[in-house]
Amino acid sequence: MRAHAAVVAEPAGDGCVFSTLRSDPPLLLRPTPSGLYLQGGAAGPLGGDQLRLDVHVAAGARLTIRSVAAMIVLPGHGPSSLHVAVRVDEGGHLDWCPEPLVSVIGSRHHQRAEIDAAQGATLRWNERLVLGRSDEPSGGVETGLRVERDATALFHQDLRVGDPDEPETWRNPAVIGDGRAVGTELRVGSGISAQTVRHDRVTGARASWVALADDVWLCQGVGRRMADVDAMMR
After folding, report:
1. pLDDT value at position 23?
2. Distance CA 155, CA 110 (A)
3. Nearest to 19 by CA among 31, 9, 5
4. pLDDT value at position 127?
5. Between vectors from CA 26 to CA 180 and to CA 9, what angle results, nearest 5°?
6. Number of other CB atoms surrounding residue 110 within 10 Å
7. Grouped pLDDT means (10 residues each) for the chain, 234 residues
8. How many Å apart are CA 28 and CA 44, to the nearest integer?
9. Most CB contacts within 10 A, which of 68, 125, 145, 223?
10. ∠ Cα 4 142 39 (to 5°)
11. What is the pLDDT of residue 193?
């Protein structure tokens, strides 16, 4: 299956209105008073699906994107993919925090997000990954996140985990160790007061906030449960 959804948010008061709102199953976009919600219109993504979402936040608009439920990646004929292309104009703001991506045993999924932020744009980008359902091995997942501001790279990271045939490449302390849940949050134009490292000795979850620039901050967390990782990243 090929699917392409798109949204263009224009400024309206302290929020936005949508001059473009295109859904294409399984990517359904539902506006609500609290933000724009991604809703799955079908199971998946299934192996072989190729999905794309385009997001444009115009100058002065403020857009919040959430999701109704976790995105469950299922096996099928070949790998599935999701490409998210984002543009945030000067003075625009995007708050992206959908529910986690869950990789099911036997699945293969490629996901990448490419974000172009103008000078003066602000961004909160939060993405979360869970390897396998409860008591289940994971499928293979490759994710990529690249953020540019005025054609200059602010952040670029690729992550490859979950491959049952090559556990030594990701089941080590340099990647995710014994973790099953991974969180990444990038903030552009805002941040926290100081760099910090957090570690819960009971759950084993850990996270760190680091400054990439004066107004660019990155938090990455890992643990056995997503709830524990979320708690460390707050």
Report:
1. 96
2. 19
3. 9
4. 97
5. 95
6. 16
7. 96 95 94 93 85 98 96 93 98 97 95 97 97 91 96 95 91 93 95 86 95 94 97 93
8. 13
9. 223
10. 35
11. 75
Give the chain as a DSSP string: -EEEEEEEEEEETTEEEEEEEE-BTTEEEEEETTEEEEEESSS-PBTT-EEEEEEEE-TT-EEEEEESS-EEEB--SS-EEEEEEEEE-TT-EEEE-PPPEEEPTT-EEEEEEEEEE-TT-EEEEEEEEEESSTT----EEEEEEEEEETTEEEEEEEEEE--TT-GGGTSSTTTTTT-SEEEEEEEES---SS-EEEE-TTT--EEEEEEEETTEEEEEEEESSHHHHHHHH-
Instruction: Identify the pLDDT of residue 105.
Output: 94
List phi, psi (to 5°) of 169. -80, -15
Tokens encoding 132: 């396998």
**Confidence at residue 190, expressed as pLDDT on a 0 to 100 scale:** 81
